[in-house]
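Researcher: Please generate the 3D structure of the following complex. Treat every line as part of one assembly.
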Amino acid sequence: MTQRCLVEPDVDFVKQIVGLGGETLKKCFQCATCSVVCPISPDNKPFPRKEMMAASWGLKDRLVKNGDIWLCHQCGDCSTLCPRGARPGDVLSAVRSYAISEYALSKRIGEAVNNPKKLHILLGIPTALFAVLAFITVFCGGTMSSIFHAIGLEWSHGGHDGVIAHADFISTWFVDLVFVPLALWVIINFLLGLKRFIVDIHENAVLEGKTDKEDLNIKKMIQALIKVIPAILRHDKFSQCSENKDREISHMMVLYSFIGLFVVTNIFFFVLYVFHIPGPYSQLNPVKWLANISGIFLVIGGGLMIKSRLSKTDQTTVYKDWYLLGLVLGLGITGLLSEMTRMAGLAGVTYGVYLIHLVLVFNLFAFLPYSKLAHVVYRTVALTYAEYGNRK
Amino acid sequence: MDKKYGVFICTGCGIGDALIMDELCEVPEEEGFPVKTHPVLCSKEGVDLIKKDISDDGVNTLIIAGCSRRINYDIFKFDGCIVDRVNLREQVVWTHPRSEYPALTEDQKDDEEHFDSLQMMAEDYLKMSMAKVEKIDLPEPFLLESITKKILVIGGGITGISAALDASLAGYSVTIVEKESSLGGFASKVRKQIPVCEPYDDLIPPVIESMIQRVEDDSNITVKTGTLVARIAGQPGEFTVTLKKPGETVPFDVPFPLPDEMKVDENGKDLDVEKLQERYLEYNKGKEDILTLDPDGELFGAVILAAGWRPDELESGVASHLGYGTNPDVVTNVQFEKIAKEGKIVRPSDGKEAKSVVFVQSPGKSDDDSDFSYTGSVTSLVALKQAKYVCEDYEDGKAYVIYQHMRTPGLSENFYKGLQQTDGIFLTKGEVVNVSTGGGSLLVEADNTLLGEQIQIKADMVVLASGMVPVTADDPVVNLAYRQGPGFRDNKLFDDYADSNFICFPYETQRTGIYAAGTIRRGMTMEESIEDASGAALKAIQCVESVNRGVAVHPRSGDMTFPDFFFQRCTQCKRCTEECPFGALDDDEKGTPKPNPTRCRRCGTCMGACPERIIGFADYNVDSVGSMVKAIGVPSEDDYEEPPMRILCLLCENDAYPALDITGLNRLNYSADVRFIPVRCLGSVNVIWIKDALAQGMDGVFLMGCKHGDDYQCHFVKGSELAEIRMQKIGEALSSLALEEERVAQYEVAIDDYDKIPQIINKFAEVIEGLGPNPFKGF
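Model: Done. Output below.
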């Protein structure tokens, strides 16, 4: 016999979920239409009916620690067919936002990311930082050169004859000295969060009888991850959605463009610091092709996402969605624009656009563990766990 | 009245094509009844033809043969004339096509082998009608010498007040009697109430205050608080009502009939009449007899019973596992409402704030998932309402509703939707199995919830849904000075709710002129009670107005006839007094019935019951129906080599007759050997008709009427049940005559059973065929 479980609703949690776009959560009357129509819900203990119950009762632990909330791809089938307008898809999305801030280090940053009133800080800090760095690059080049020569390194990565290089505006050293530690911080942040996350979702799965595994086996988890990744890349789950089928294409475009840009950045990092060949690189270079195609995909994908959100007035779109979509589209546009204006020889314009681009990249990196984009990590892990735990 | 007859046969709707009209017209003509035919009798020309005969020739007794009497009844209505309709369309030509029952060829006529079933049937029906109209009279209304149209409302709660206001608006004087010292009832004891108007999605302040104000401002309404009804004597239009203070004993307190155990002697033998009377008087010592009218009594025309409910007491054992009775913080919803009305919600045990309250809707721990007794949608809605109180009083208040059934019918679904939105209200289906104390709070344990198999919740208070028990469970309330007793009969069938026919006639009780409204009928919200009060007020008005015109109220609304007694031959057997479903008859100490015509519903149950056959109506009596039976031609072997069977069906007018009409509309076929005679109710069937039918050689008799039993459909409550009892007795009599019991049967049909009727008829006809002809045939 299982232990009688003490139920203690958290009214404050209910209010927060409402604030994160789950304002319909109390409308549920447990008919389970959502679980029936969900194309990807497992047969054993299907979601999102039980999640809706836990949400309306303010049972935080049952939701935040629940791997199932990440199995949902928010296709919207349940929300469209819900007879009471309880929009389970939106509620789960709000719960995911809440869970992201729960697992990230420093809740204050998390709150800032989800608060439109704090946007100026999120943009202001990197703007100021890069402005200072630009000032140093442009006006203190000599000093920096002598410092770098002293430790045996070449300061400048730009300055070919008459060619505009963004490195002349903000040194690549500065850029990488900002982003490499930032990336490390993001990775540590995620690792710490994931450590708790995996234990929690496993515990919850055992408690609710959603898994046939009793303990966590890292080796088997990695095997599961290898199985899951192709499915993610193919968007297997996404393609089962009927309500928002068009989102599959735009999501795929954005995902692949990020992967492409990640590859490009790493290659050029390697080229710069190992082969000491500074940019800008030739447009004939195949890596450059990949970069440009990815950039174009990012703009188109981001644009399509925004268009779809705007046209679907019945779908809840809250600040956290707009923040991320704005970031995606902004990244693509400023990236391409800075390249185009550079080639057009508009030095002033291209430097300005480049500054904005760096600010957006900073936002993307620094707040990755806090923004909706963190789903890239949590959903992947949750899908991996579902594969490992035989959730069917 | 000097009868001048006229027979009018319509040849439309296929009647003229199927029947040989010349031969049919000869039937009345031979008896000296003038006959006219018309192709469309219901047309203006057709009606003019009839009117001309009425005005020119003084025809006043009309036989109109054509469609069913249920059709064109307004067209074939002629003032001052007896009108009888012969149903040649639905019962003859539409149900017996010529393809099945061909007309005779010239050779076949008079060959003593062939006969024309269809023509025989039409001729029989004409003959039956001719026999009938000779025996009936034009009814004259029964008018009271003096009539009062004042309406008495028992109960000054929201229902009584609404009924009084509605009746007053319609121009009637009303008196409200309320046992408590002020008006308002439970409606004035609530903090907030379930909505009574759009958008029905949130609590509203109580509406009762403004209604009480309206009553006080209304000069048509008299209010008597601190008052009970000691007795209601007499009949609608002239009820003599004695009022008294609660607890008072007065000579006009109503006498009660002897309980069954007092009707027998020490050895369990029935007492004789004198002894019974002696015991009855002893039992009711100090009380005036029911037939004595209180000279100081107040007269009323009709009564609205709106006495309401009391909270269910949750008898011991039902909720002891929930701590009820032992833990002061486990209360009923009514007790919780009292706490809420007085201020913030606090625990009864220590006066501390109750911020976490669990509302329990079902006792749990039983094999089924039933709720507490007498609960329903109201208690579901009340749990939601009271849950909201907790969240209103405390920002961090938590209210849990654990239910097996959440009943929010109709627009109250909006209320559920609205209240569900409250952050602090938590709802789940579940079975509450235990409430225990620990650590200064209560621990509620529930199984099979939507949150999991077994959960527990910490609570400051637990509220149990106690149901609404109609006060008629404890007391007759109306205290009728009727021989059948002071309350309504059979209330046990309805868990003591005062009800006679829940769906079809909601306000009717089994006592004419007494209309029940509000929670005395079933658990109701205030909105439902207000609406119910309007219905009962309209019924009370219909009653006084019908009485004023000397016609029946219900269900034979407008019927001017009433039972007439030929007292010289009465044997004081009391059958009529006892069998009347509506207690319309009282009897004196000798047992002679005293009719109360305005209590009567004109079903004729008394006529069916009377062994002396001394009860009848102007247009419906033992003789008129008996003559119709005798008018049916019964062919014997003298007429044909193989004579057809003759079967009589006594057909209830209320549901069976319309159902048979629908059978006709659908052109379904059934045996041509059956002759139908409509009866007001199977309860009015006097067994003499059956005996007569069999005695004259008819081969079988069956009754077709409404379902009886606990879920009866009889429009007169008891009629079909009484008929069944009489049928059993006649069965015994038949076997003594060496006739098979199977020759007499009774069938139950509902109004939508038109498709089953042919099977019923044909099957009975087959049984009779199997038994062979009645041995008395031809005697």
